[in-house]
Design goal:
- It is built from 2 helices and 33 strands.
- The chain is mainly β.
- The chain has one domain: Glycosyl hydrolase domain, family 43 (Tachylectin-2, Chain A, 5 Propeller), CATH 2.115.10.
- Strands 1, 24, 28, 29, 30, 31, 32 and 33 form an 8-stranded antiparallel beta sheet that branches.
């Protein structure tokens, strides 16, 4: 792979700030275990709980988030008796990306046309929920894409609803794409990207069944430019008996002039992880870290998230199906579900800072975002004892059913959850520190890791602000670190 050379020349600094950054206590804004809030009567308190397949968009002073109706302990009879306005597609909003207000549900029922198609095409199965919504905006109109399906089948439907408000009420506009057992692809997990040069709209969608596809939309209607178009292949894997690929998310980074395709690998309750490729065009082809077309059957790198555990915590599984968005200042973020280990049933919102390396690849924070004010760092801030995690592909191959882990295999094996190691970093280990970009190279006894990014962030496990780092190795693995002493 030919990597982009770093253009900024930085001199090794012998001193950082006037005084090294000292960790400061900062309580976590919410608990990870939400067992007390599982009963349906607590629905208004689900701000960061029961989050699955999130999509997020900034509108004015708020960030609005939409997600699948995956509810731990869902009981519709209990909801009715408690007066819960249970519906379909969860909606939340926040002003700070930390505290989230649960707004309720976008729809009160599954759209009739979607339900009719799925039941007809699947012989009466499915159409019990709405999955993976995606929010977009066109000329002051908010477009909410959604999918209805039958689990384990390709009988699926992606529909569109519109509103003048990000909270509705929503008007059903019709079908964007639908699939059946006779098609190669599966119409779930929509995401939309706009060509920065032409204004053309493109939808990426797809799953375990056949990979992900891309079709052109009509910007005026939000529907397919050509009715019945199923699009062209964008990404796939070799053996779907053990290799899952789903949940595309496509963004455009104007600073780099590149489009980035994020996809999730493996089963969602356990070793779910996020990979990424990039392209000069919103319709592909997308190439991975080593220049491989994602439509090939090679497993792609880099890997951005995967199950992990820092000391002092039980750790996380299911760290996938991401949404990626920017704030008003152009800072990038990734939101995704995290399943609390060891049982992997609770679905918590993870929201991480996302950076782009000097080579033009995404790298995400090792910690969930918690509104940490930034300051200029120097080499002195990096000296001390660190916990370092290498985010690597799963160590085991699992048999899958419909892209998911088989029943009874919900727990992680020991080697499937990346664990932290302690590393003492000295001044001699820090090379080429660059103040403007807060990047540096780390010289280890056996190798050098280049273009690491450092910043101030929230240490979730120790509940304090500290110095964090993230980056990618030459092998395409994420490196996460936090200074603990």
């Amino acid at each position: 792979m030919t990597r982009i050379s770093q253009l900024t020349v930085c001199v090794l600094l012998l001193a950082g700030c006037a005084s090294p950054f000292e960790p400061t206590p900062a309580a976590n804004p919410w608990a990870d275990d939400y067992a007390p809030l599982v009963p349906m009567s607590h629905w208004k308190e689900w701000g960061t709980y029961n989050v699955h397949d999130p999509s997020c968009k900034r509108v004015g002073d708020y960030y609005y988030m939409y997600s699948t109706d995956a509810i731990l302990g869902e009981n519709r009879d209990e909801a009715r008796s408690a007066g819960v306005p249970l519906g379909f597609i969860q909606m939340r909003r926040s002003t700070d990306l930390v505290n989230w207000e649960f707004l309720g549900w976008a729809f009160d029922s599954i759209p009739a046309e979607a339900r009719r198609w799925v039941l007809q095409a699947s012989g009466g199965h499915g159409a019990t929920n709405i999955w993976a919504p995606y929010i977009a905006e066109y000329d002051g109109i908010f477009r909410l894409y959604y999918c209805v399906s039958a689990f384990g089948r390709k009988t699926s439907y992606i529909g569109l609803a519109e509103s003048e408000s990000p909270t509705g009420p929503w008007r059903q506009k019709g079908c964007v794409v639908r699939t059946s057992d006779s098609t190669a692809m599966n119409a779930i997990d929509p995401t939309v990207v706009v060509d920065a040069k032409t204004g053309d709209w493109w939808m990426h969608y797809g799953s375990f069944f056949g990979g992900t596809y891309c079709l052109r939309l009509n910007p005026e209607t939000g529907l397919a430019m050509k009715e019945g178009d199923l699009g062209h292949l964008i990404a796939r894997r070799a053996d779907y008996a053990k290799d899952n690929l789903e949940a595309p998310e496509v963004i455009y980074n104007p600073a780099l002039g590149k489009y980035f395709l994020f996809v999730s690998y493996e089963p969602l309750m356990t070793t779910y992880n996020v990979r990424v490729g990039r392209s000069d065009s919103p319709s592909g082809p997308f190439y991975d870290y080593f220049g491989t077309d994602m439509a090939d059957t090679t497993n792609n790198l880099p890997i951005l998230t995967a199950p992990y555990r820092f000391d002092g915590h039980s750790g996380w599984a299911g760290t996938g199906h991401c949404g990626v968005f920017a704030d008003a200042d152009g800072h990038w973020f990734m939101c995704h579900q995290g399943r609390l280990s060891p049982h992997n049933m609770m679905m918590d919102l993870h929201l991480r800072r996302l950076f782009f390396t000097a080579d033009g690849w995404p790298a995400v924070s090792p910690q969930r975002y918690a509104a940490s004010a930034q300051r200029t760092l120097g080499p002195a801030d990096l000296e001390g004892l660190w916990e370092i995690i290498s985010i690597e592909p799963p160590c085991l191959e699992r048999g899958l059913e419909a892209g998911q882990v088989l029943w009874g295999e919900g727990g992680l094996q020991a080697c499937e959850q990346a664990r932290s190691q302690r590393l003492k970093i000295t001044r001699n280990d820090i090379r080429n520190f660059c103040t403007p970009t807060q990047t540096f190279d780390l010289q280890l006894p056996d190798r050098r890791i280049t273009n690491l990014i450092t910043f101030v962030g929230h240490d979730w496990e120790l509940q304090r602000r500290t110095v964090l780092m993230t980056g990618l190795t030459d092998q395409g693995f994420s490196i996460w670190g936090k200074r603990v002493e």
